[in-house]
User: What shape does this take?
Amino acid sequence: MARNQFRSPKGIRDVLPEEQPYWQHVESVIRETVRLFGYDRLDLPVFEETALFQRGVGEGTDIVDKEMYTFTDRSDTSITLRPEFTAGTMRAYLQNGMASLPKPVKLWSAGPVFRYERPQAGRFRQHTQFNVEAIGDQDPALDVEIMSVAWHLYKSLGFKNLSFQVNSIGCARCRPGYLHTLVVYYKDHVKEICDDCGKRLQKNPLRLLDCKQDQCQPVIRNAPPMVEMLCQECSVHFHALRTYLDELGRPYQLNNRLVRGLDYYTKTVFEVWAQDIGAQNAVCGGGRYDGLAEVLGGPPTPGVGFASGLERIILTMKEQNVEIPQVPGPRVFLAAQTESANRVIVRMLSDLREAGIAGVMGFGGRSLKARLREANRRGARYVLILGESELSRKRIQIKNMQGGEQREIAFEEVVSFFKEGDGSVSS
RNA sequence: GUGGGUAUAGCUCAGCCGGUUAGAGCGUCAGGUUGUGGCCCUGAAGGCCGAGGGUUCGAGUCCCUCUACUCACCCCA
Assistant: This one.
């Protein structure tokens, strides 16, 4: 291994050609899903003003406190590579006057997001998210639609053993009261909880509920659940949500330990869990964020959405042996055996491509045997072979690589052979 | 930021208690008679054994340091 060779930065990966069939398949299923549900594409910049995320995602969240890629540009503006899509989506909604569009405004985006974390299985510093947001309506049926987008995507991909986790974390009206109750409860159990939970109790009490330490489990189990302390509005909303889910026959688990890490969530929060992405299990997470627009300086505007990590989706597909369509090889491979034959081949290949037929040729003057080996490796359906004797007759051998049949056709027939569909090669 | 594991060919990995020219499979390239792939056979190319230091007559192998990768925690997609 060369010593001073460059490597990609830590936690940043290449998506190699052999991985591309997975990506293409996921992307095509995503496109079909958003089409069915009537979402419009929104492309957002890869970086934004730092303050957008500080305010939108929230000071005190791990993302803002320790995971952002932040730098100043040449005019000393603080810039941050996007760590998620929701804040940017809301910014674009407000900036572009989308409030004047019929509500809800339904948008989707996809692309890389960046978080400075220690990489591990299913976690990278650059990963790709598929993001869906519906802005401008509080109807719980819209929460359910958002969840259905995720549901449909994973079903279409053929996932098994999916589990929907649902909770409501209330709103600015009822959450403070709940947090108080939770803190009071925990005060009686400080000696039983882990060190991290000691800190959470001070800093971010909601997080107490998703601690994984064994010693904390009994305390969590007996903790007062948020859903029982929701205000009237949140309670009605959550009840309606569950009614819709039941109506649709969607299996879900009421998980009152599901709290999620971003400040902007209100009412509905949900995740979809798949199994075996290393220690990670969430392929998707989202919820409602009715307070976000105001935090960003806009008028009160409710919204609901989710993000799903494509790398985790693909890991799950591999884990579950999901079938994916294979990317076809070239339709034809051209093999010339002499310099003069090569000139004819180059011209013929150009004509084929003009006619929309995918073709490749062999380079570098190797033996015919090597050419056929290469054609086989590349998955070519047909090989055109041109040697001296064919050249003198202005004809060319055409070989079907599946059955091996071969015959000779005239130069002028080549393009039409492929244009008019397969035509049998066996004579 | 905190722990554990690993580092030998392009890839996946052998290499026993330290001992001579460092191995396999896959992949690549070439050949197995006249211009024909897949299977099979043969051969070749390809390694300062992650870096630096130490112990020793002798280190891929033992010790120390560093680095990278990896898994896990925190947290998240």
In short: DSSP finds 15 helices and 16 strands in chain A. The mean pLDDT of chain A is 92. Residues 234 and 408 of chain A are 76 Å apart (CA to CA).
